[in-house]
Design goal:
With 476 residues, the protein is α/β, with parallel strands linked by helices. It has two domains: 260 residues, 3-Layer(aba) Sandwich (Rossmann fold); 197 residues, no CATH class. It has 17 helices and 19 strands. A nine-stranded mixed sheet has the order 3-2-1-4-5-7-6-8-9, sandwiched between helices. The radius of gyration is 27 Å and the shape is elongated. It binds S-adenosylmethionine. S-adenosylmethionine binds next to strand 2.
Amino acid sequence: MGTATKKRRVYGEHFTPIRIFKEFILPEIKDDLYQYVWVDLFAGEGNLILPILELIPNNKRINFFRNHIFLFDVQDEFIEKSIENAIKYGIPPDIAVENIRHMDTIKTYPNFLLNLEFPIYHITNPPYLYIGYIAKNSGTQVYLEYFRGGNEGYQDLYQLGMINDLRKGIPKMIYIIPSNFLFGASVSNKIRDDFLKYNTIKKAIIFEKEIFEYTGTNVAICFFEKKDIPKNEIIFFEGTKINKLIQKRVYTLVPKNHYRAGSEFEKFLDENRSPKPLGINYYLTKMDVEKNKGNFEITVIDANNFNGKEYEKMLIHINKNLYDRIRSNILFIRTVDTGSINGRIGLFKIKDVYNVNGILVTKARYRTHPIQIFLTPPLSTEEQILLKNYFNLILEYFRKKTDSEFMTTYKYSNSEYTRKYLGLSQVKKLIQTFPILILKDNEKDYFNELIIDGNIKELFSFLKMKNGKKELNLWG
Ligand SMILES: C[S@@+](CC[C@H](N)C(=O)[O-])C[C@H]1O[C@@H](n2cnc3c(N)ncnc32)[C@H](O)[C@@H]1O
């Protein structure tokens, strides 16, 4: 990694383009400019605050700056840059240096701001740095101390910025932060639980394309407002999602789900786990083959050997036991969208896609490779096809309903849709809603029909009836 890149990482330097400020933030605040002190505690070159001055008449600018603008940063070079930028807007240098200050604002809150004539409106794009990265890299380990004491449990530098604002009771905030604040689980459950008890989200603009030059992090602009009375209650807000299209939808954040956005899929999984779930094993490995050598011959693809066009095929020789096991488990999971319409995540028949019987891992396991799935107890071919159709139907239903928000964005690309990744634990949980082991013989046809017809409504009530049966929990 070059020194510039490293420094960008360490300080989380991703400056917000002024056009983003003008398009998405300025319209929200322009009528209240004289009502607040405009603060950025992580100001970089001042892009999120200084352009406000363009709306202030020349003869009022200096006074306005003095009473209404404060910028901070921990790096001198950016303080100088912000001062230069303020000067360009007609602020004299001696006044600019008063309100643009060097400070580590994660460590120390500039408390004097709380005693000014106007309340604080904090607009910022704070540094982002995940604690896992901080702990592993020598250049960033100094930050670990920020996460001690009362800050224990937070997962990223941006969360510390937010929690400091919460502690000071800041009434209004606009944060540009990783979208994982809204959609993440373990990385952001705590910050949402703590922060959203005291503050509500008025709206959010969620970017699914890059807005910063140097980072692939998905970000959202979140508009927060302090609640009159702190309370855990459902939050509704309008989110505008920007990718190739602009889509709006109302998000519902429920305290019980740690206020996590796009949690409809997880809710379905939790509520519909079968009382008698299937056991699932992933991967056919080289070790399995070595342990089960024999005279039975079978064709597989080598998941670690993709020649740019297709996976290399190979013949393996194994005992009857493994031979039967491979042949009787006909499905694999594709965990990553390929980008084409036919290449979406889902369960597929190995034979249909690769024209072999198995998928062998010869080197490291990758969660993004095609992965053969082994089920216990074994299912018949018909039942596995039913599982495949069931899995893909439910998955596509929730992808459509939530715009795939329960999945991780895999990579920015120019494909027809945003490519996503589905975690293996989600795959397992979805398979474990499949009620095959508790279906009575006379229910199988009906269940099959619901899936073939894509009758989601009836399917959901059927699942509820089957999986929700308390007495069957004996097997759970
Ligand atoms: C993501 S940049 C954003 C800058 C600006 N808000 C913008 O949107 O253009 C984050 C800034 O925070 C500064 N920073 C990082 N750690 C800081 C700390 N502990 N105290 C104050 N500023 C810090 C960095 O130097 C960097 O300029």
